[in-house]
Amino acid sequence: MIKCHLSRLMGEKKLKIADVTRETGINRGTITRLYHETAERVELDVMNKLCEYFKCELGELFEYKSDQS
Question: Which CATH code is given to the segment(s) 2-64?
């Protein structure tokens, strides 16, 4: 399972979905699905924009967790 830490990153900076959407140009629905961890796919350009915006590595935004845990 892939975990998305967007909600944690946003919480640390006290950002709302609207803030990230406005400042990155990423579709609000995409940000919402990532925030609630309901996204089934993510485009590479979206991951790139989020990493640039949060000044983080991809591993800080997404994490692989074994389903066997």
Answer: 1.10.260.40
